[in-house]
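Quick sanity check, ATP-dependent dethiobiotin synthetase BioD:
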Amino acid sequence: MSVLLVTGTSTEVGKTVVTAAVAAAALAAGRSVAVCKPGQTGIAPGEPGDLTEIERLSGVTRTSEFARYPDPLAPDTAARRAGLPELTLAETVAGIAALDDADLTLVEGAGGLLVRLGDFTLLDLAQKLDAPVLLVAAAGLGSLNHTELTTRALHSAGVRCAGVVIGSWPAEPDLAATCNRVDLPRVTGVDLVGAVPEGAGSWDRERFTAAAPGWFIADWSPFA
């Protein structure tokens, strides 16, 4: 099994759609894929969450969610407010290990790299699993700072960054977005391995899965 963790420079940068795109590209290459979302927040029991959207877009059928909290907050804070148990690193590692019959297991975090999923962050999880992290970044102003801060944190922790993906590339990019596409790899030392078109999350599965493999550079692979 190959494990790839997906995080963002912040919230609302397109992690879920990028995770779906990676899953769709791997499925198109004939590989089996599982997707894990350890902690889902802001969704009531029984409501569709991020995994439902990933299933709808990519066609992946094996997904796993370990905890769900109603408030749209960091998972540890949401757990405390709801009076529910926080996720632990040990149970999350065990849950991911249960998906080891898939060729690729994608693990989508919550918010940014250091958001606490319970008694741990996605960075802690990456270290424990010895797994690389794919970083989803915004296209416009502020992205250089946020992306460099996150890649520096990964490097300092000894965790490999598998690449940077722009989570929502605008149909009409402004000057900042155009420059960032050149400057992101320059300031981070990490390859820009893909960009997902703005609005792709609203597409149907047929259109999404047909296009997704082309959103990543030709020589990039999600397999470590």
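Posting the structure with no commentary besides this: Residues 121 and 130 are 14 Å apart (CA to CA).
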